[in-house]
Task: structure prediction
Amino acid sequence: MAAPLTAQIKTLTKGKFSAYQAKSPRDIAAAQQLRARCFGCQQPHDCDAFDAISTHVLIKEVSNNTVVCCFRLFAVNGRDLASSYAAQFYELSALQRYKGLMMEMGRFCVHPDWCDPDILRVAWAAMTDVVDSNDVRMLFGCSSFAGVDPDAYLDAFAMLKARHLGPLCWRPGVKAPDVFRFAAQLSQKPDAKKAMLGLPPLLRTYLLMGGWVSDHAVVDHQMNTLHVFTGLEIGLIPAPRKRILRALV
Result:
């Protein structure tokens, strides 16, 4: 079961962009429409059962009211982790022992026609506000690579193996039927430039803050993505990074 958020998300604005919590079915439909476009869905709206139990955040371009980014949040305690979206794909029994509130961030996407760095800054500022207001101890989710061919991202996966595998005490096990076990299969030394270019922007941000990943990627044919479980322990974020994030709130 989802743990209730004790504080609502306040509207945050930086430059041309504003982040706010969805307050109506129309807001959620706008997020689902953007998700469908970003993930290449056949239907006009990407929706599932988790939408009804999640808190949705939208980022709009203020002048023309265009939704340029969205994500959803699902707060959960360790004992109820099996009810999360990620638990469909990863064996999470180790993390069920985690003490403190966790929050899953899902369906994060940015409009393909927009590349302004302020979009990510506003999104992470909204996330920081939620984390601080609700005393969240760990942020987690599935970070997606476009497409299902791991060969396109071998340097990125080699770098994840070399530098960013999660601690054994929390690391997820294999559950999905189709996975790429990059930590076991790759032995190459990563090309740093190719690796960084291959990392999705969301995952890159997680890693800059001290985030970690599973030792395998799930091949998700339904969403046409490869994704890795990603965890970020809030207490381990470097102090300078925390100051930058909180300065925007």
The two ends are 29 Å apart (CA to CA). The first strand starts at residue 12 and ends at 14. The first helix runs from residue 25 to 38. The mean pLDDT is 92.
